[in-house]
Amino acid sequence: MTQHATLGVAVIGTGRMGADHVRRISEVTSGARVSAVVDIDAERAKQLAAGIAGCTAYTDPAAALAADDVDAVIVASPGPAHEAALLTAFEHDLPVLCEKPLTPDAASALRVMEAEQRLGHRRVQVGFMRRYDAEYLRLKALLDSGELGRPLMLHNRHRNADVLPYFTEQMLINDSVVHEMDVARWLLDQEITAITVMKPRPSGNAPEGLSDPQFVVFETDGGVLVDVEIYANCRFGYQVQAEAVCENGTARIGEAHGMLVNTAGRWGGSIAPDFVERFVDAYDREVQAWVDATLRGEVTGPSSWDGYAAAAVCEAGVRAQAEGRRTEVELIARPALYR
Amino acid sequence: MTQHATLGVAVIGTGRMGADHVRRISEVTSGARVSAVVDIDAERAKQLAAGIAGCTAYTDPAAALAADDVDAVIVASPGPAHEAALLTAFEHDLPVLCEKPLTPDAASALRVMEAEQRLGHRRVQVGFMRRYDAEYLRLKALLDSGELGRPLMLHNRHRNADVLPYFTEQMLINDSVVHEMDVARWLLDQEITAITVMKPRPSGNAPEGLSDPQFVVFETDGGVLVDVEIYANCRFGYQVQAEAVCENGTARIGEAHGMLVNTAGRWGGSIAPDFVERFVDAYDREVQAWVDATLRGEVTGPSSWDGYAAAAVCEAGVRAQAEGRRTEVELIARPALYR
Amino acid sequence: MTQHATLGVAVIGTGRMGADHVRRISEVTSGARVSAVVDIDAERAKQLAAGIAGCTAYTDPAAALAADDVDAVIVASPGPAHEAALLTAFEHDLPVLCEKPLTPDAASALRVMEAEQRLGHRRVQVGFMRRYDAEYLRLKALLDSGELGRPLMLHNRHRNADVLPYFTEQMLINDSVVHEMDVARWLLDQEITAITVMKPRPSGNAPEGLSDPQFVVFETDGGVLVDVEIYANCRFGYQVQAEAVCENGTARIGEAHGMLVNTAGRWGGSIAPDFVERFVDAYDREVQAWVDATLRGEVTGPSSWDGYAAAAVCEAGVRAQAEGRRTEVELIARPALYR
Amino acid sequence: MTQHATLGVAVIGTGRMGADHVRRISEVTSGARVSAVVDIDAERAKQLAAGIAGCTAYTDPAAALAADDVDAVIVASPGPAHEAALLTAFEHDLPVLCEKPLTPDAASALRVMEAEQRLGHRRVQVGFMRRYDAEYLRLKALLDSGELGRPLMLHNRHRNADVLPYFTEQMLINDSVVHEMDVARWLLDQEITAITVMKPRPSGNAPEGLSDPQFVVFETDGGVLVDVEIYANCRFGYQVQAEAVCENGTARIGEAHGMLVNTAGRWGGSIAPDFVERFVDAYDREVQAWVDATLRGEVTGPSSWDGYAAAAVCEAGVRAQAEGRRTEVELIARPALYR
Questions:
Q1: Is the Cβ pair B253, C257 closer than 8 Å?
Q2: Which pLDDT belongs to residue D1?
Q3: Which parts of the sequence belong to the GFO/IDH/MocA-like oxidoreductase domain (chains A, B, C, D) (predicted)?
Q4: By three-state DSSP, how is residue D76 classified?
């Protein structure tokens, strides 16, 4: 075997997402390898590192990011740990792929943006992977082409088979609907200015205390109405759909087509059980795009500004949800670095 | 040719809908014939009657309804003329198929209900033809079966290629969304308690002064949220879709399938140009059901109560639309005749 | 109730198809009524007639067709009885809707055509109801438009959930594939010149002695290849599909769309259990078209020639099936009456 | 940048497929890099190598395969050059991904198999990329599960927008239908025993002398009938579909779903323009699977036997096409190495 220059990646956090990124970088992505894994659970980090040639285990992110064979960072630790990890990466001027959320609230996201602005160039790609999904990309291309005229409304469905027992009402906004916030902003190239949350009588599938499903409406500064059905315990599978209604036509993505079966009085197909199956290609493409851009010396994709804007809309959304009324979103003026 | 007993029908109003009912009764429906046509335009009535054996032309509804060969009435005149026609039909105790709206407002609808209650039995079937559409019927049967659990939300799309120049913002509610009001009430077997109307920035297709499309949300007394996209100038065709989101699954109707064509880089099919093509079978089935019930001595289908409830929700809707806020619907207690 | 001129129809044969036509004429069709029912089982005829005002029961077709109140005839008796019934109808110059097959073989079909030619005008519409199916009509219109270029191939699927125990291999051709023979001839406006029947290893669902499914290929005098999958015991439902492959595109009908349901890990819809559900509208339209043409004094739809051609292709098909080789179809020159 | 062990790949042939593999190995595949490119056009090879770090250009395959930094080989030269390249690779005991066809005829394929058997272990993966397509994989999994019962028939559509002017009738079999030969063998795990080729009147799109489309039927040793519509000049796009008809159900893949657009009186989506768009993921997966297996020291995927069997069926197919009759396929007994 010959030797070849590749991007050495440190993966911080080795939970579900982090471990999946380790596998992806090792087995799927071209041009990168995992040179460091970081977890506060030293044993876990060591076990994961053991299976990868040339990979070192760390418990301290700062130590990992200082290592010679670390060229770039994936942050996949819990949200509250993101700010510290990002600031450390900035100290070493390392490119970062930061899993969403950028940080848990708008205030900390602002601090991250300020630090990045002091560096004078973008270092962060936020892990909004839907922007790398083939269907969303096709929808984006169609909207950008203007072929159907200006977008007027965006209808979204976001359905999960079920959620873990500790899932709270705020998480419906912060963990689930946050994806629609980002894709709406990205598809439309507009900011969200207000948010309303409506609640039908809860499903019998909803755990005690979780009003599930909910119906969320965003308004944008371009006058588009975006509605989102979020149903976290629908039982039948994972389904993400979007329909853009434009002046002269509509476009819809997310129908679970593929193989069509006729059997036992029914025609149809299967629904993905979870986001992993639905978005596996998007994750692969996201990470490859980040590696490719990094190797070219660029930073692309969703920025810290996108992470901040999502956090600000989430904060308004949680208030709207609690108070049962339309709530306006407040954003700072967009810094020059993110224009 | 032999002679055979058939239902003699007077058709009041010979505009687009009335003329179509004349054709339907004459050529499609089994067991009925048109024995009278009524229009204030005497010439128009005479021309129409001339083509039908045994059919008399009238300008005065009262004269037509007094005729010996009139066994039942279709009211297809403009809405403001409905109340008088219905009261006259009640005088002769004639069964009526009354095109929607029952009357133009809740107050007049109340008067019609009072008169019908004085008769002591139902005489009116209101022309909400979607209840006779094969797809809506299938959706209703599925919801009633409980197979998917309790309904939680109902998403609706209502798109017209275009509308006539005199179409007003109130007509979006009164003429278009009124159909979703009725199907929501019927599908769910619940009353609508509040209505909110939201407006994105209007389409470039919308005529000056018409904020089109709009997004309407109903709340029901069973806790279901019903949202309706109404887009009256979408250019691409006529499309009516509904998706019921239930506890354990969803069901959607209104995809314009049929013949699928592959050609010139595209797969797909055609979209109905207007409601006539989309709902022709529903109209045929509605009228046949009315004739059949009448021949059996029964009155079935949407009642005056349904006409009244639609009028009351429309009134709230028009207020909600004008004032930009959630508006509650006020209904009288449901009279015994309509339970 | 008033009296009205309607077409008095005699229905000969009151089995499944005949009884359904009695119901259809009585309850669905406009402009006709059942004035006579004929069955060799006198009791059965009497019971059926008893439920219909002005309807007389007969055991002898000749007596029925001589009655004053019989203006037209539906022949729904077993195939071997068709020739006699048709010849009797010709004696009275009565218009006939004859269920398929016209007669059981080409020789008897020729005799019927000769008798009809002696009358000097068409009297027979053969009951190939697919020509009245909305989807087949759309496909026919598209092919006739030339929009996709000249048709080159026609792929057909013909699937039954199951068949009765007495179903034979010949019936696969004579009772099932005969429909594709007729629609291919009609869609293409071409005659079938040769037929090949291929047999895969039989399904475990096939009863002993029935090689099911089979794969049939027609060649036409216009150079089109038509293939038919006939699978009579597929268990999952009734499915009839056709795809026309033209020079510049293809068009497919028969996908069982309608209501789409998401539930329990699956998206999809239901498949019609049998031909009644799939083709109910086609039967209604077929009979209405026959009544309408008759009231206008015309004879339209599939002619005796179409019945004869189907019989001739069936005969070749049964030989091809038995002998395992391509078999040519022999037709007489088309008489002037049927051009 | 750190150094990392990767598989050094020599790519022989830098035409459309070869150049695409160079790009894939360099930018998409994990764990491999291009260390050599070989083309008889020295300039072309040099230009391609210049853009890749550590890549050497060759005109002589033998020289490339002898290089120290070559660990594995992709053969993408014209078919007649495959045998020599494979034998050279065998001399160095290098794993090979050989684009289809393995060799241009059964006799040369036999020689390759004999040489590989002398090595005593498999070295060749043949480039039948459809086996790596997500939809075909799903169909294969369903058939293998037995959920729908035993397969009885397999209907295939293979449509190209157009073909290059030098495309011959034999190429319809050898270059196009060969894919269906392989997927049929793989999906069913059965050998093809006979082949029939039928020709409708050619499309006006077909160039002079090319009878296009054609309809091909395979019979298998398991009694399955496989039909293939091959239409190489359909103009509307690239479309590959397959429907397996099993005892208790059918399964279909290849509908070009994805984004659904409503516009200008039509619903539908776009059709892939060519095989690159349709099968890009399959190619990526194929090459990654080959790299992964090679790094594990294994050889998986379609074998030389599969290449030989395809060649033998093609030879029978070309005879069947020329002579217009069913032609039997002759295969040697399957050597132990390929069981």
A1: no
A2: 43
A3: 136-251
A4: coil
Alpha helices in B92-133 (DSSP H): 106-119
Taking 70 as the pLDDT cut, the residues of chain A under it are 1-5, 256
d(CA D127, CA D103): 12
CA distance A249 to D265: 9
What pLDDT does B5 receive? Answer: 66
DSSP state of B166: T
Tell me the average confidence (pLDDT) per consecutive run of 10 residues in chain D, 339 residues long.
Answer: 73 96 95 96 96 95 97 97 97 97 96 97 97 96 96 98 92 96 98 98 94 98 98 96 96 86 88 90 96 94 97 97 96 96
Out of A236, A265, A269, whose CB is closest to C271? A265
Which has the closest alpha carbon to C123: C304, C312, C318, C280? C304
Burial of residue A108 (number of CB atoms within 10 Å: 0-12, 13-18, 19+): buried
Cα B143 to Cα C151: distance, rounded to the nearest angstrom: 43
C-beta atoms of D271 and B256 within 8 A: no
Structure tokens at B74: 């279709």
Mean pLDDT for chain B overall = 95
The SS3 assignment for C190 reads coil
β-sheet bridge partners, residue C97: C74, C125
Span B223-230, mean pLDDT? 98
Question: In A120-211, which residue ranges form alpha helices assigned H by DSSP?
Answer: 134-145, 169-171, 178-188
The pTM score is 0.94
Closest CB to D253: pick one of A148, A250, A259. Answer: A259
- For the segment B172-193, the average pLDDT, to the nearest whole number, is 97
The domains found in chain C, sorted by start residue, are: 7-129+282-301 (3.40.50.720), 134-278+308-338 (3.30.360.10)
Asked if D32 and D6 touch (Cβ cutoff 8 Å), the reply is yes
Q: Is the Cβ of D107 closer than 8 Å to some Cβ of chain C? A: no
Q: Is D310 helix (H, G, I), strand (E, B) or coil?
A: helix
Please answer yes or no on whether C235 and D247 come within 8 Å at the CB atom: yes
Q: Which of C309, C293, C329 is nearest to C112 (CA)?
A: C309
pLDDT one-digit tens code per residue, C1-18: 444 568 999 999 999 999
pLDDT at residue B4 is higher than 80:
no
The Cα C33–Cα C10 span in angstroms is 9
CB-defined contacts C:D, below 8 A: 94
Beta strands (DSSP E) in chain D are: 2-12, 32-38, 56-58, 72-75, 96-98, 124-126, 151-159, 192-198, 214-220, 225-231, 239-246, 249-253, 260-263, 266-270, 327-328
Which class for A36: exposed (0-12), middle (13-18), buried (19 or more C-beta within 10 A)?
buried
- Distance, C-alpha C34 to centroid of its chain: 21
Q: Which two tokens stand for residue D180?
A: 């269906």
* pLDDT tens, position by position, A72-102: 999 999 999 999 999 999 999 999 999 999 9
How many C-beta atoms surround the C-beta of residue A209 within 10 A? 9
C252 touches chain A (CB under 8 A): no
User: Which residues are paired to A158 by β-bridges?
Assistant: A230, A240
Q: Which residues of chain C have pLDDT under 70?
A: 1-5, 256
**Can you tell me the distance from the alpha carbon of D307 to that of A217, in angstroms, rounded to the nearest whole number?**
57
Look at residues A178, A181, A199, A198 and name the one whose alpha carbon lies nearest to residue A190. A181
Please choose, from the candidates A31, C90, C199, the residue with its C-alpha nearest in 3D space to the C-alpha of residue D1: A31
Residue C290 CB-half CA count within 13 A: 36
Residue D311's closest CA among D106, D8, D29?
D106
Characterize the bridge pairing of strands D327-328 and B2-12.
Answer: unpaired
Q: How many CB atoms lie within 10 A of CB C164?
A: 7
Closest-CA residue to C24 (of C289, C254, C239, C240): C289
